[in-house]
Amino acid sequence: MRRFLLYVHTGRAAALQAALSVLEELRLRGVRGVIMQQQSQEILALGPDLAPPRLQSFLTSGAVDIIDADAAPGDIELGIVLGGDGTILRALEAVRDVDVPVHGVNLGHVGFLAESEVEDLSITVARLLDGDYEIEERSTLEITVLDADDEPVSHHWALNEASLEKADRQRMINVAIEIDGRPVSSFGCDGVLMSTPTGSTAYAFSAGGPVVWPEVDAIVLVPLAAHALFARPLVLGRSSVVAVEMTLDNREEGELTLDGRRTESIRAGMRIEARLSPNSVTLARLAPTPFADRLVEKFQLPVVGWRGRGPRTR
Hints:
Blueprint: E1 3-8, H1 13-28, E2 32-36, H2 37-46, H3 53-60, E3 64-67, E4 78-83, H4 85-95, E5 102-106, E6 116-117, H5 121-129, E7 134-138, E8 141-146, E9 152-158, E10 161-166, E11 173-179, E12 182-189, E13 191-195, H6 203-206, E14 218-224, E15 234-237, E16 242-246, E17 254-258, E18 262-266, E19 271-276, E20 281-285, H7 291-299
Parallel strand pairs: 1-2, 1-4, 2-3, 4-5, 5-6
Antiparallel strand pairs: 7-20, 8-9, 8-19, 10-13, 10-17, 11-12, 11-16, 13-14, 14-15, 16-19, 17-18
Helix pairs in contact: 1-5
């Protein structure tokens, strides 16, 4: 039997109602719905006043597969995510190791990962069930944290960005930047971002970094409020390795944050290395919308006066 994972923003009534609609459509088409155990527990804990009783009945009657593992099994065909970009990031964490494509239905605000709108949910689900979508790959970061003796401490991954920031709001941190094994600059700052093209429209964009088209295979390095003459954002290629060192003169700790969700303390002398991972994540796209159109739509950019006639062929 075909199986579709459903990942929901359990704190939004609209997402819960949409989840019920999706599960009913899956059942009509003979497709088994799958929900993570933690999400099932969160929905059931809301009670009938906050979560649709019919949705809770799906979860308690055996009509949905409840999986208790931290990661999705490999026989899931596709994931449907109901929420904003944050919900999609959490869903991608669950399916990254088994390479399940994910389609996001937007119930957030400015989101670049979600493609569909909840108003078109019925059409969206029908097209996904019919396999009427394209796969879009997105680069991810591979992060290694090393101690002062260059011994590995931890390994992480990120779809949007890894940010090293000061833990004490009243103090700066001092960092040294290395690219491809060579020192490039050192300065005091509020922090440093290492972003993928996907993350270039998220935190890195707010910090003054460039918008990078998703198909570009690159790392974006963005200093945060740096006290330096040369502290411009840098765009690096797939083969580059970026290292950010907390120099030994730091008296306070820094904090490494991955995709705004996972954190780790970084002390003086420690080092963070970032490179593009060989493992990407996959999004299921219903339409090959030009990224320029997405920018205009999401940021409400003015295009008055444009004289163009659409895409040109050479």
